[in-house]
Design goal:
Elements (H helix, E strand, L loop, with lengths): L1 E6 L3 E6 L4 E5 L14 E6 L6 E6 L3 E6 L4 E5 L14 E6 L6 E6 L3 E6 L4 E5 L14 E6 L6 E6 L3 E6 L4 E5 L14 E6 L6 E6 L3 E6 L4 E5 L14 E6 L8 E3 L4 E3 L6 E5 L14 E6 L4
Antiparallel strand pairs: 1-2, 2-3, 3-4, 5-6, 6-7, 7-8, 9-10, 10-11, 11-12, 13-14, 14-15, 15-16, 17-18, 18-19, 19-20, 21-22, 22-23, 23-24
């Protein structure tokens, strides 16, 4: 059975319940994790990782969370996003040194972040937009503490930004803000966390490329950031620097990182919105949608 699936730029990996990880697609940086740089049109076994419980991909790298609270990563490492203190690509899994007690590990574009069980967050890799959260704009090749985060209960990540939910149901974000994705009412990049404006009761968050969405305790959903393809879901194509309501979502259930999609609470239905140039909304068209549409499931 498949436990988790992760998609990067041009490659996909699946975690099986036998602790096996299989990957396929582009392998220019070793992101398939099988010790080679050979592309594969079919799934190939990555390095066996006993105890792996989840996986998450960046653009060209992948990290696995292990049941003992450690992390292993492989693939592209040009910005130090594998966290091993180097910028050397890895074609098989390596353990991120000094990282323990991890609850969640996520891959951004060219950086990675981990939520630690004490409520802190550490990030590493590309930092030119402040996405490491340590007050600087330089890359880090080893896990580095995000400043001021001590009570995080949820971590989400976009291509160049990251967010946390706090114990009180508010959220903070940092990193790139060119499209208003940090939802602080500005377009200013932030190298330390800033509070998401005007929103509380946040139950879940997910980041897209340049937009962020949050599910609230009342079942509704809000988004901010780039909206050129309708990915904010408010019925417009206007960029949003603060969170606005997604039209028609009253019980988000679970939502996933992509254009924008939600899974119904009973796991029987899916709605998506945003860019649709490859048919990724699943409604049988190539027409972008700025409000949610039902995915056609045979």
């Amino acid at each position: 059975a498949i436990v988790a699936i992760a998609t990067g730029d041009g490659f996909t990996c699946a975690l099986l319940d036998t602790d096996r990880i299989q990957c396929w697609g582009d392998n220019a940086y070793g992101q398939l994790g099988n010790g080679t740089y050979t592309d594969s049109l079919v799934p190939v076994d990555a390095t066996a990782i006993p105890g792996a419980v989840n996986i998450h991909a960046g653009h060209y790298h992948l990290c696995a969370l292990i049941d003992d609270g450690t992390v292993q990563c492989w693939g592209h490492n040009g910005y130090g996003q594998l966290g091993d203190g180097t910028t050397s690509n890895r074609t098989s899994a390596i353990t991120v040194p000094g990282l323990t007690g991890v609850q969640t590990v996520l891959g951004g574009g060219y950086f990675s972040c981990a939520l630690i069980d004490d409520g802190t967050v550490k990030c590493w890799g590309q930092g030119d937009h402040g996405q490491i959260g340590d007050g600087g704009n330089t890359q880090r090749t080893s896990p580095t503490a995000v400043l001021g985060i001590t009570d995080a209960v949820w971590l989400s990540i976009g291509s160049y930004s990251a967010c946390v939910i706090h114990t009180d149901g508010t959220a903070s974000c940092w990193g790139e803000n060119g499209h208003g994705e940090l939802a602080d009412g500005t377009h200013t990049d932030r190298s330390t966390p800033v509070t998401v404006s005007g929103i509380s009761g946040i139950a879940a968050m997910e980041g897209g490329g340049s937009h962020n969405c949050a599910g609230l305790d009342d079942g509704t959903m809000v988004c901010s950031g780039q909206n050129a393809y309708g990915e904010v879901g408010d019925g417009t194509y206007e960029e949003r620097t603060t969170m606005v309501s997604v039209t028609g979502i009253t019980d988000f259930g679970k939502f996933v990182r992509a254009h924008s999609c939600v899974i119904s609470p009973d796991y029987r239905g899916i709605q998506c919105w945003g860019r649709n140039n490859f048919g990724q909304l699943g409604d049988g068209t190539f027409t972008l949608k700025n409000t949610p549409v039902d995915v056609t499931i045979p």
